[in-house]
Specification:
Number of strands: 14
Number of domains: 2
CATH superfamily of the largest domain: Glycogen Phosphorylase B
Helix content: 25-40%
CATH class of the largest domain: Alpha Beta
Shape: globular
Largest sheet: 8 strands, mixed
Radius of gyration: 21 Å
Strand order of the largest sheet: 3-4-2-1-5-6-7-8
Length: 370
């Protein structure tokens, strides 16, 4: 079978995240099952126009921002489909990140939509007026065009939000999520100083500002508390974050690592005491299991996705109030109780062991009715 995937980013994009890891795992899983897979995604600085990754052909064209209209990856995907793929594929996977590829309007072959999350109020944070209003309108309207195709998502929380957005319960299926993170055989030794770690794209929606403010609060009780911030972001926003750290007198407490290799990320997750994830919303939250594999529990906000992956007081804590104050309180609760921390470490490793990618691709094709 020939499968075409349309996604705004691919796994090598510097701004890629959990959705792109999922996409690559699905695509490579399809290849292992004997299918031919092509993915169309946006260009990024220094990227090749085309390459093969784990047997998956990646074609890059256009900009990930739909506001670029005829220069966007959404239009590029339409153009490339019409020119090279129409009538030559068996399945088209339309990945929706706020804005779909509108494949129901031009693709004649079998289609399925992969929706990791509903953006909703994220539009107000991610883009300014009037594009936030436009995005919300599109997100409310497009379900009417996707009534007759399977919808696949990655958590029960996302399924509930998708149904509220206009899809039927029977139409939406949840695929199992996995992790490639290496699991420790013994609980590792942590940093001498209490160390938190934040791993994500640096954007307002990921809650990095709340993470910094939580450290400001904790510092009053634990003066040598440390926070490692792992991830890239837009230049102006990163400068804003660095200024905030300086203004709050946290330069000795907080370190920015920018992009790191998988090996370096694994090392840092192993050495840190707690992963913090104060995101506004997640489809799932793969970093929780990446940290859990290294014996590092998590403190997360009570939002879709994160509440699915964290079992409260088992592999971490879910904040009852999404605020820097609640975040700092729960971090301190863990750091000040060695027995509780050890329990969460063991729980984090145990929960990670339950999640693999082994049957994700198969379940996807089953739900897509292939």
């Amino acid at each position: 079978m020939k499968i075409l995937i349309l996604n705004w980013r691919d796994i090598k994009n510097p701004s890629s995240g959990g959705a792109e890891i999922l996409t690559q795992e699905l695509a490579s899983g399809f290849v292992k099952k004997g299918h031919v897979v092509t993915q169309i995604s946006a260009h990024f600085k220094g990227s090749r126009n085309e390459e093969i990754i784990d047997g998956v052909r990646i074609i890059r064209s256009g900009d990930p921002d739909a506001r670029r209209l005829f220069k966007s990856v959404h239009f590029a995907a339409y153009r490339l489909y019409k020119k090279n793929f129409q009538g030559k594929v068996d399945l088209v996977i339309d990945e929706v990140h706020g804005i779909p590829f509108f494949t129901t309007l031009y693709v004649k072959e079998k289609k399925v939509a992969l929706i990791c999350e509903i953006a909703g109020d994220l539009w107000n944070i991610a883009v300014g007026f009037p594009f936030n209003i436009f995005g919300k309108i599109i997100e409310k309207i497009y379900p009417n065009l996707y009534k007759n195709i399977p919808i696949i998502t990655i958590s029960e929380s996302s399924k509930k939000e998708i149904e509220k957005n206009g899809f039927s319960n029977s139409q939406v299926k949840v695929i199992p999520m996995g992790s490639n993170s290496k699991i420790v055989s013994n609980l590792p030794k942590k940093e001498k100083e209490k160390t938190l770690i934040f791993v994500s794209r640096l954007s307002k929606t990921k809650g990095v500002i709340d993470a910094i403010k939580a450290v400001e609060i904790i510092k009053k009780i634990i003066p040598d508390i440390k926070l490692w911030i792992i991830g890239r972001g837009e230049g102006e926003f990163v400068i804003e974050l660095q200024k905030l750290v300086k203004d709050l007198d946290l330069s000795e407490n907080i370190k920015f690592f920018d992009y790191v290799t998988e090996e370096k990320k694994e090392e840092l997750l192993t050495r840190a005491h707690i992963l913090i994830a104060p995101s506004v919303k997640e489809g799932w939250g793969l970093t929780v299991h990446e940290a859990g594999a290294r014996g590092t529990p998590a403190v997360v906000y009570n939002v879709p996705g994160l509440r699915d992956i964290v079992k409260d007081n088992v592999n971490g804590i879910i904040c009852q109030e999404n605020s820097p104050e609640s975040l700092s309180d729960n971090i301190q609760k863990i750091l000040q109780d060695d027995n509780f921390y050890a329990k969460l470490q063991k729980g984090a490793v145990s929960e990670r062991k339950k999640h693999t990618w082994s049957n994700t691709a198969g379940k996807f094709l089953e739900f897509a009715k292939i």
